[in-house]
């Protein structure tokens, strides 16, 4: 999803915790294929990965309150909070702008 919608040609870094899904060879191969630099926390410290924890909290607390009927609905349920977080929710740390607004200004 992120790779398809990405417009910038700047180097990309994916930051995650050390969950087994992120350490898997399949996932790491995906990073290499797309030229993505992988960054991981030193251990399990949720404060080192605050952005991902925030988006996961939005998923669990606001969007995954019901079981999806099928795979397409599950994809929508995963995509929707990410889109809202990036495009609609202003962030105090970004002077009340959305990440998309800041990204558009900073992208060449």
UniProtKB/TrEMBL annotation:
Residues 1-107 form the Integrase catalytic domain. PROSITE patterns: INTEGRASE. One of its GO terms (molecular function) is nucleic acid binding. Signal peptide: none annotated. InterPro entries: Integrase_cat-core (IPR001584), RNaseH-like_sf (IPR012337), RNaseH_sf (IPR036397), Transposase_IS3/IS150/IS904 (IPR050900). GO terms for biological process: DNA integration. This is Mobile element protein.
């Amino acid at each position: 999803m992120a790779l398809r919608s990405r417009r910038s040609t700047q180097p990309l870094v994916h930051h995650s915790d050390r969950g087994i899904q992120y350490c898997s060879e399949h996932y790491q191969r995906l990073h290499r294929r797309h030229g993505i630099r992988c960054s991981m926390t030193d251990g399990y410290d949720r404060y080192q990965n605050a952005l991902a924890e925030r988006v996961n909290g939005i998923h669990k607390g606001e969007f995954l309150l019901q079981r999806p009927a099928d795979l397409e609905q599950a994809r929508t349920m995963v995509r929707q909070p990410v889109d809202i977080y990036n495009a609609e929710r202003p962030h105090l740390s970004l002077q009340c702008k959305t990440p998309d607004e800041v990204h558009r200004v900073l992208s060449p």
